[in-house]
Amino acid sequence: MTDTDMRDLIRTIVEPLVSHPEDIKLDLKDTDDFHEYLLSVHSDDVGRVIGKRGRIAKAIRSIVYSIQFDGTKRVRLTIVD
Questions:
Q1: Are 2 and 35 in contact (CB under 8 A)?
Q2: For residue 14, what pLDDT is reported?
Q3: Residue 75's CB: how many other CB atoms inside 10 A?
Q4: Which of 1, 30, 39, 73 could bridge across to 5 with cysteines, CB 3.0–4.6 Å?
Q5: What pTM was estimated for this model as a whole?
Q6: Residue 69 reports pLDDT greater than 80
Q7: Contact 75/67 with Cβ under 8 angstroms?
Q8: How are strands ordered across the β-sheet holding 74-80?
Q9: What's the mean per-residue pLDDT of the chain?
Q10: d(CA 38, CA 30)
Q11: Domains of the chain: which residue ranges?
């Protein structure tokens, strides 16, 4: 899976959850060990993406982390609030 595919996957999962899909922003920060995707959404939508006790965020991360990404680096998803 490439960077573009991963961005599309994350956007496809998050868009139906939020009220302001135009404010979804995904940045990529590469480190030695991770491809870290920084997800930011409208301030009204942060709770919807995280969910009660973080259950929705955990489910999103489970899907994203299960995908085999190109190379040896692992994928990390951080929700920026």
A1: no
A2: 96
A3: 18
A4: 1
A5: 0.88
A6: no
A7: yes
A8: 25-30, 34-40, 74-80
A9: 91
A10: 11
A11: 3-80
